[in-house]
Amino acid sequence: MTQGSKLIFRAKERFATYNRGRKVDFALEAVERLGIRSVLFVGVSANDSYSLGNVIERRIGEVVPDHVATGIGEEVAEGFTAYQQADGLNLPFEDGSFDLVYSNAVIEHVGLEPEQRRFLAEHARVGRWWIATTPNKAFPIESHSNAVMAHWRKSWSHPDVSRLLTKHQFADLMPAGGRVVGFIGAPTLTATNT
Length: 194
Prior knowledge:
The protein has four helices and seven strands. Strand 1, helix 2 (55-63) and strand 2 (66-71) form a beta-alpha-beta unit. The chain has helices spanning 3-34, 55-63, 113-126, 167-172, and strands at 38-42, 66-71, 83-85, 98-104, 127-135, 179-181, 188-192. Helix 1 packs parallel to helix 2. The chain has one domain (3-192): Vaccinia Virus protein VP39 (Rossmann fold). The N and C termini lie far apart (44 Å). The model has no long low-confidence stretch (mean pLDDT 86). Strands 3-2-1-4-5-7-6 form a seven-stranded mixed β-sheet. By secondary structure, it is an alpha/beta fold.
């Protein structure tokens, strides 16, 4: 790895850490303000080798001990009190089972608009309150590949991303009472009803 590559990698890691810290702060403020006692984490990776993987969920889980992590993998995600294999489009929980449903950068992986709408509807069905984040398509750096502006080209594709969203597209998917937080060029957009 060249010196320039190392500097870029370190800058990306610092930014990712900062951005996740902002998401943690937003979620923890909602947890405290709303008196959250139970949380469902949707889309937790059970085998995440990335150093910042699941860090937001773990931080919230430290404050809210009554939590369940779900993901599509069969392996149990480490660091959670409970893990259940589940599809975020059809969660195996009763209506209103949790105070808060939280997903971090999952909606862009579930499919196109109908699946994304269903994903958020499941958040609203299972939780009294919900928060869902996604990388912003309007931000010049695509967070999955670290490509600069490549995701703005129609010909660009990345195997991990079905559909990135702009603030307007995200807002169009909202269940009743939902809103999108984050300025139009922010790196991350947050949808919530908190």
